Amino acid sequence: MLQNRVLLFFLICFLVLVSCDSNSVLDTYKAVPNKWHKDSIISFKINPPDSTNAYNLFVNLRNTNAYKYNNLFLIVEMVFPHGKTVKDTLEYRMAEPSGKLLGTGYTDVKENKLWYKEQVVFKEIGEYTVNIQHAMRENGKVNGVIELEGVTDIGFRVENIINNN
């Protein structure tokens, strides 16, 4: 009986250690309702650990087979603690030419880790806000896609930079 408990304890410790991600400073997701409306902005608050180290930033996305586009256009806005705003329009490839969705996952839900910015130093002390909204358009149409189907979660990730020296 005692051996089983000790074995269980070590198994749990091993799983906790293996599942830890030492590069992650922040890794959070927010669920998207059934469809992602073009006016819906997903916001993340960031309190950087320091103002001297550089970090890599990512937009994380989970999507299902209901996502019917080969690419994804996002508007990502970073609001600095003292009010400065930087807005980027980004395009990501989401599927192979055959239509097979990119990303990781064995089920119909795929996870995509999309580069946002690299080697970012958070020089201002305080809370940053990252706002993300989609900017999808169909070919030949002026108006954007009102409700984007197939996106289940939007996330934001801040990682320590790995030095391979």
UniProtKB/TrEMBL annotation:
Family matches, as InterPro entries: Motility-assoc_lipoprot_GldH (IPR020018)
Transport found in the keyword field: no
Signal peptide positions on this chain: 1-24
Domain of life: Bacteria
Keyword tRNA-binding: no
NCBIfam families reported for this sequence: GldH_lipo
Protein's name according to its UniProt entry: Gliding motility lipoprotein GldH
